[in-house]
Amino acid sequence: MPVTPVRIGLIGAGRIGASHASVIARRVPEATLVAVADPRPGVAAGVAEPLGARGETSVQAILEADDVNAVVIAASSVAHSDLIVAAAEAGKHVFSEKPAGMSLAEIDTARTATAQAGVAFQVGFNRRFAREFVAAREAIVSGRLGTVRQLRSLTRDPGSGPADPSAVPEWTIFTQTLIHDFDTLNWLNPGARAVDVVATAGSLTAPGHPTLLDHATVVIRYDNGALATAEASFAAAYGYDVRGEVLGSEGMVTMGEGAQSSLRLHDANGRLATTAHSDTELLADSYAGELAELANAVAERRQPSVTGDDAYAAFAIAQACIDSMTSGTRVEVAR
Predict the structure, then answer these.
(1) C-alpha neighbours within 13 Å on the C-beta side of residue 153
(2) What confidence tens digit (pLDDT) does each residue in 312-322 have?
(3) Residue 24: exposed, middle, or buried by beta-carbon count in 10 A (0-12, 13-18, 19+)?
(4) Are 312 and 296 spatial neighbours (Cβ–Cβ below 8 Å)?
């Protein structure tokens, strides 16, 4: 018997919101894009109407809509927690872009609200749906690598650095960028908990800037004895770069070469491969996979595979990084 597609209202029509709208409408048969909300005049309609959906200028229009039973939140990060709570109180299932809040208290409020409302709550940690990362985790869980000992995850954004360093909120590299790596490391070390961190970061594209941190390296210790590093850069001239590595007692697995195909051109300039230059290009299948997971969870009346607890655990590492930078010491990770 065919399953009725989940009817989705999207909140936020910026870069990632517009991408999600297209993915839902064109690549997720388990879902239907019903409406898009954005307060900027004409923006929501410009995204929604070519996809057969309607544009709204208020969030409330989405939350009160009878033909919407799930929302995808792609608004500014500072609004995520409030929007999650409002959606839950309206009885809507929720997918929120990361982070689920800008503090551990906000994330706790969000996961409490969705639990009390009995709605599905998923956070957008897309690497869990990337084919290579999924295969790597399966190898780890099956025991092929033996005991996990060392892990590495990195994210490098394309370009030469922020055009306006002052427009980048303080600690963005931890709460917005490395949050993906923290979740990835937790996920690739199943059953283990991050114990403490040491973080170091600096402004290398705008030396001396008082708040910008555009390069960072974090060392994490886990309670199973494993050691992990997370690395981020806002200035990778060659394009968007996401990679991971896990070393175990019996082997190693790596993931995330970044090439668009197996084609390699050999000429006078050397060995060349075409690589992705944006997250939506490199992780297109992952975005479709995570949104399909929300739809399937709603249809199957279960919680998604990425929960509010995962959001809390990843942000707890981010917060420990901030505290480590502030204190200059190793900092324990909140449980």
Answers:
(1) 23
(2) 999 999 999 99
(3) buried
(4) no
